[in-house]
Write a structure and sequence with these properties.
By secondary structure, the protein is α+β, with helices and mostly antiparallel strands. The chain has twelve helices and 25 strands. It has a six-stranded antiparallel β-sheet, covered by helices on one side. The protein has a four-stranded antiparallel β-sheet with strand order 12-13-11-16, covered by helices on one side. The protein folds into four domains: 130 residues, Alpha-Beta Plaits (2-Layer Sandwich); 79 residues, RRM (RNA recognition motif) domain (Alpha-Beta Plaits), CATH 3.30.70; 77 residues, Alpha-Beta Plaits (2-Layer Sandwich); 147 residues, Double Stranded RNA Binding Domain (2-Layer Sandwich), CATH 3.30.160.20.
Length: 479
């Protein structure tokens, strides 16, 4: 019924026939009362479960499960995942051969159950020597639309997207950092469901679709990173966007101190957004309510709680190309000790490849070559039209970053020194002729390297860190 006559090895050296496998699945269905249907390369267990009334669980209730042994099925998997809570639906991806494809999606009835599954089952040894990975899964309902005429208003973009696609719920448009009357040339379009977003993307993706006479760019927007409620309850830093570039940190601090003098610890501003650190969470939450929508230097600001992300992980992901320019709101803020300039550029914060210990990250494992078939169409392209996810080195990221901010390209100046044991050591000084404040800036790390490539990469990393590229924000506008 499910596996035909395929023989399955269960990981302990014993072979389970297709008939035995079918019997095990039937026994699971009889025991639980759930239905099981196989379609479109996946097998659905439940969805909804027996006796379920009302709508499906909200977003955030589903987890992704990876590294599942290919000969493991619902009769073994479901009892494991039931430890975290009631399963609404279990979707196991299947091969035509009858083996699973190594991954599944488990939707629980509540977000708390999904979070518990991540905590207790991530890296769980499901068979001797076999560890599964469990992380949050979000159905993406948001598209990134680029190459939009900058004079178009939010209402115009919303109306146009509703005309050409179905299921549009909202459009998010950011004003230009330099001219608040214009948009930044892109928008995020929110759809009522993942299916509606997927259908819209399929219609718009070919690259020939035009809006207002312009060929637009279309891609999935990276979903906002989920931060657990317990962590968010401790946050006492506010993220403030839509500021004027000319607005000073002192002005921001004074404005946020008005509702309660002395409540602001410090402010860190980068271009048109800032992080406001408070001494207490209560004051931060109160200030968010009071200040959201207020005007500072003529600009109406937006204020939310900043979402903390581990800096080391974010930097490693950034270098590995795991953060793309579609990331709308992935924020990284520093704690009291992170402002210490002495910590920047230290070897401990750099990828291990600079020390000869580099092990490939997730994106690097996915890198591969493809055959170049005769007749394959090649299209000339500028590197600046690509996404930052196409770059794996800090050198390329820095060049891309400068271009996106309309700065002159970084200039590299090489210097050498001799170590105590007689080795030649190298270091680059990077000069950016025109940065955010219109003045020339230069950056030089406090470490020397033995190879030219490492010296250049280290200098680029150091420069990005000092520009605030990683420590304080990986916001779309700054990529």
């Amino acid at each position: 019924m499910y596996e035909g006559s395929t023989d399955i090895t269960n990981g302990c050296g014993k072979v389970r026939t297709g008939t035995q496998n079918e019997a095990a699945l039937l026994a699971l269905m009889e025991k639980t009362g759930y239905n099981m249907v196989q379609e479109n390369g996946q097998r659905k267990f439940g969805g909804p479960p027996p006796g379920w009334e009302g709508p499906p669980p909200p977003r955030g209730c589903e987890v992704f499960v990876g590294k599942i042994p290919r000969n493991m099925y619902e009769d073994e998997l479901v009892p494991v995942f039931e430890r975290a809570g009631k399963i609404y639906e279990f979707r196991l991806m299947m091969e035509f051969s009858g083996e699973n494809r190594g991954y599944a999606f488990v939707m629980y009835t509540t977000k708390e159950e999904a979070q518990l599954a991540i905590r207790i089952l991530n890296n769980y040894e499901i068979r001797p020597g076999k560890f599964i990975g469990v992380c949050v899964s979000l159905d993406n309902c948001r598209l990134f639309i680029g190459a939009i005429p900058k004079e178009k208003k939010r209402e115009e973009i919303l109306d146009e997207m509703k005309k050409v696609t179905d299921g549009v719920v909202d459009v998010i448009v950011y004003p230009s950092a330099t001219d608040k009357t214009k948009n930044r040339g892109f928008a995020f379009v929110e759809y009522e469901s993942h299916r509606a977003a997927a259908m819209a993307r399929r219609k718009l993706i070919p690259g020939t679709f035009q809006l207002w006479g312009h060929t637009i760019q279309v891609d999935w927007a990276d979903p906002e990173k989920e931060v657990d409620e317990e962590t968010m309850q401790r946050v006492k830093v506010l993220y403030v966007r839509n500021l004027m570039i000319s607005t000073r940190e002192e002005t921001i601090k004074a404005e946020f101190n008005k509702f309660k003098p002395g409540s602001v610890e410090r402010v860190k501003k980068l271009r048109d957004y800032a992080f406001v650190h408070f001494f207490s969470r209560e004051d931060a939450v109160a200030a968010m309510s009071v200040m959201n929508g207020k005007c500072i230097d003529g600009a109406s600001i937006e204020v939310t709680l900043a979402k903390p992300v581990n800096k080391e992980i974010a930097w490693r992901q950034h270098l590995n190309g795991q953060i793309s320019p579609n990331s709308e709101n992935l924020l990284v803020f520093a704690n009291k000790d992170d402002g210490n300039q002495k910590s920047l550029g230290k070897a401990a914060n750099l990828p291990s490849r600079l020390h000869g210990q580099h092990s490939p990250g997730p994106s690097e494992l996915e890198r591969c070559t493809y055959p170049f078939f005769p007749g394959t169409k090649l299209t000339p392209v500028s590197m600046y039209s690509l996404k930052s996810s196409h770059f794996s080195s800090a050198v390329m990221h820095l060049d891309y970053y400068c271009n996106k901010n309309n700065w002159a390209p970084p200039e590299y100046y090489l210097y050498s020194a001799t170590s105590q044991d007689g080795n030649v050591l190298l270091v680059y000084k990077i000069v950016i002729p025109s940065s955010a404040n219109g003045s020339q800036s230069y950056f030089m790390p406090d470490k020397l390297c033995t190879t030219l490539e490492d010296a250049k990469e280290l200098a680029a990393q150091f420069t990005l860190l000092h520009l605030g590229k990683v420590i304080f924000s990986l916001h779309l506008a700054e990529i």
